[in-house]
Automatic annotation (TrEMBL):
It comes from Biomphalaria glabrata. Its EC number is 6.2.1.1. Signal peptide: none annotated. Gene3D superfamilies: 3.30.300.30, N-terminal domain of ligase-like (3.40.50.12780). One of its GO terms (molecular function) is AMP binding. PROSITE patterns: AMP_BINDING. CDD domains: ACS (cd05966). Pfam families: ACAS_N (PF16177), AMP-binding (PF00501), AMP-binding_C (PF13193). Residues 124-516 form the AMP-dependent synthetase/ligase domain. Belongs to the ATP-dependent AMP-binding enzyme family. GO terms for biological process: acetyl-CoA biosynthetic process from acetate. This is Acetyl-coenzyme A synthetase. Residues 572-651 form the AMP-binding enzyme C-terminal domain. The keyword Hydrolase does not apply.
Length: 691
């Protein structure tokens, strides 16, 4: 094990069975996974066009290809980013410095001296010429129902909500917790915050009241925006009830705005404001608060390997520019197209590629409120046909789920409008890649496997941009985005040189979209991202670099789980389990799951003298996790054991727990040095009984 990088061995691709087929293909060159040369419109060798794609570089003779552009972006980042910033964003005051600080100092600033407003960039500047263009297509949970919102309509909603927030006492820099279903109201509330200079903190509406309370208190949010109910997959979710329960533990909350998603009447208390009624009398014209480039646009909580979730904090200018530029070039988004990112706005994907990227480009973006299987596994494809979507951007987990339902659900709908098929959040395994490419995309569409994180603000690795027709290899996001300098580091923190290699994935140069800090805990930010390998940004993921310099992600190197593309810390789940009065201690690990990517496996040690049966306890433990975190953190398996395997110095041997959970009994290694070696035999036996 590493002296420098914790858990270093965990990244190895052999630990991730979902990757093995692709990896072995890379080694053996099996024909079913050959590199694909895709060509569109006969433009198979099209070079970069500085006139249409990157007009800001058209005077530069040296930029003729994507390769040239990439090298330029790395060698002259200040020229590269300042030209893009001035041409892609609208500023109320131009910036004086492009970039200050570095990873060693632990502080990065971009575009200082400049001021701008994100809502102006996402709405106002499009109104004159594109006021009647559709900004949002809201695909409601109820199958077959959608409604459209033009830029003008969105602007009016933002104005009214902005004025309501102002009137309620929300000031620039205040945090506003948003706990809403994916809806035009949610988008308008986020943009209203941006307009008046407040910081939005969206909490995924699938998180429990406890999880919401933790995030509200950490951010010291005085304002919460929620809905009476949410509707998902035909089921009603009592959002307002959750907020009522959360707010009893949040003394900082002064007001709760309630949007009526359904007809249901919910009890309203003295903090509550009916948003629909209250916005009726508000003007659609809301004054704009200009923000300094480095002012925080939003924070978003995400899980780490230890402790409570971290409030990842993003800047106004750098984030907005990065989501704008990556949206345009990763997906080759063209004016007039309909972009269908199905992620919830409670995740970073929803922030960058439902809202800020598409709207700052004047695009048309989808708000998908439902699930991939409601009313059946044809939901996405029926929607593609009805809405004529040009792009779809989803998580591999939903592909793995849908492909099991058979091709008929896909084939009965016309998908000829689709041009690009994107995915994000976890490795896109070989079978899912092939199905996406062959069945969904009818071998016409590029598969855009994008790697990035809440912390990176936008896509950092993706097969595009690159020359159309350039190869796309299944199972890997491949190419670094312009401005992103990638590096691999070994267990001692030394760079892995050479064309191919394996190691900890790091980003070696600052980029505008990166998170600036963890809210109220800059030391944790430094410790997590900038100190593990001094001088670079440490992603926490492992990667392979293949021939051609293409990157393949092998998974997290820390104790963070990726369950259906959702990031969860094992420590958070253990904390919830340990709260049960009968639990002495617990250890949670991930194991390979053919749909979710990773499943949750909990080993639980009970205290002596309890009276409940194990069955009853299991029920209570699951209920506890649901109430402390949310249904997304429920373990597949709970194994009760008299103790956990430990080293003689008392450290829990998670490696052994992971191997047992993954059925890799012959890889347990030497267990004789453990303090109680017999416990391993016990958990292996119990595991076999349970599975
Ligand atoms: O482990 C990587 C995985 O998701 C993590 C980031 O999770 P989150 O911050 O929730 O953001 C997800 C959406 C941007 C990464 O550290 N991950 C993300 N994309 C990929 C991926 N793993 C493999 N391949 C990807 N394309």
């Amino acid at each position: 094990l590493s002296l420098v990088l914790p858990n270093f061995g965990k990244y190895l691709s052999s630990n991730n069975p979902l990757l093995n087929c692709t990896t072995s293909y890379m080694r053996t060159g099996q024909s079913s996974a050959r590199p694909l040369c895709l060509s569109h419109c006969g433009l198979s060798s099209r070079n970069i066009s500085t006139t249409t794609d990157y007009p800001e570089f058209k005077d530069l003779e040296e930029i003729k290809t994507h390769d040239n552009l990439y090298k330029f972006s790395i060698n002259k980042p200040e020229v590269f980013w300042s030209r893009l910033a001035r041409s892609r964003l609208t500023w109320s005051k131009d910036f004086t410095h492009v970039m200050k600080g570095d990873f060693l100092q632990g502080k990065m600033e971009w575009f200082t001296g400049g001021t701008l407003n994100a809502s102006v960039n996402c709405i106002d500047r499009h109104l004159k010429t594109h006021g009647d263009k559709v900004a949002l297509i809201w695909e409601r949970d109820e199958p077959g129902t959608h409604s459209v919102y033009t830029y003008r309509k969105l602007s009016e909603m933002v104005g009214k909500i902005g004025n309501l927030l102002l009137k309620s006492g929300v000031k620039p820099g205040d945090r506003v917790a948003i706990y809403l279903p994916k809806s035009p109201t949610a988008v308008a509330t986020m943009l209203a915050c941006a307009r008046i200079g407040a910081i939005h903190s969206v909490v995924f509406a699938g998180f429990s009241a406890d999880a919401l309370a933790g995030r509200i208190n950490d951010a010291q949010a005085e304002t919460v925006v929620t809905a009476n109910q949410a509707v998902r997959g035909g089921k009603l979710i009592e959002l307002k009830k959750m907020v009522d329960s959360a707010v009893t533990r949040c003394p900082c909350v002064k007001r709760v705005l309630v949007y009526n998603r359904t007809e249901a009447k919910v009890p309203m208390g003295k903090l509550d404001i009916d948003m629909t009624k209250a916005t009726l009398g508000e003007s659609t014209d809301c004054p704009v608060v200009q923000r300094a480039s480095e002012d925080t646009l939003f924070m978003l909580y995400t899980s780490g390997s230890t402790g409570s979730p971290k409030g990842i904090t993003h800047s106004t200018a750098g984030y907005l520019l990065y989501s704008n530029v990556t949206f345009k070039h990763v997906f080759d988004y063209r004016d007039g197209e309909k972009f269908g990112c199905v992620a919830d706005i409670g995740w970073i994907t929803g922030h960058s590629y439902v809202l800020y990227g598409p709207l700052s480009n004047g695009g048309t973006t989808l708000l998908f409120e439902s699930t991939p299987v409601y009313p059946n596994a044809g939901r996405y494809w029926e929607m593609v046909e009805r809405l004529k979507l040009d792009h779809i951007y989803l998580a591999p987990t939903s592909l793995r789920l849908l492909l099991k339902s058979g091709d008929e659900f896909v084939k009965k709908y016309d998908r000829s409008s689709l041009r690009k098929l994107g995915c994000v959040g976890e490795p896109l395994n070989h079978e899912a890649w092939e199905w996406y490419y062959n069945v969904v995309g009818e071998r016409r569409c590029d598969i855009i496997d994008t790697w990035w994180q809440t912390e990176t603000g936008g896509v950092c690795i993706s097969p595009r941009p690159s020359e159309l027709g350039a190869e796309i290899i299944p199972g890997m996001p491949m190419r670094a985005m312009p401005g992103i300098k990638l590096g691999l580091y070994d267990s001692e923190g030394k760079e892995v040189k050479g064309e191919t290699g394996e190691g900890a994935l790091c980003i070696c140069q600052p980029w505008p979209g990166m998170a600036r800090t963890i809210y109220n805990d800059h030391d944790r930010f430094l410790k997590t991202y900038l100190k593990p390998v001094p001088g670079v940004y440490y992603t926490g993921d492992g990667a392979h670099r293949h021939k051609g310099g293409y990157y393949q992600i092998t998974g997290r190197m820390d104790d963070v789980l990726n369950v259906s593309g959702h990031r969860l810390g094992t420590a958070e789940i253990e904390d919830a389990l340990d709260d049960h009065p009968d639990v002495a201690e617990s250890a949670v690990v991930g194991f390979p799951h053919d749909i979710k990517g990773e499943g949750i496996y909990a080993y639980v040690v009970l205290k002596d003298g309890r009276t409940l049966t194990k069955k009853e306890l299991e029920k209570q433990l699951k209920a506890l996790i649901k109430s402390k975190i949310g249904g997304l953190a429920l373990p597949e398996i709970i194994l009760f054991t008299p103790s956990l395997p430990r080293t003689r110095s008392g450290k829990i041997m998670r490696r052994i727990l992971r191997k047992v959970a993954s059925n890799k009994f012959d890889e347990l290694g030497d267990t004789t040095t453990l303090s109680e070696p017999e416990v391993v035999d016990f958990i292996v036996k119990k595991h076999k009984e349970l599975t």
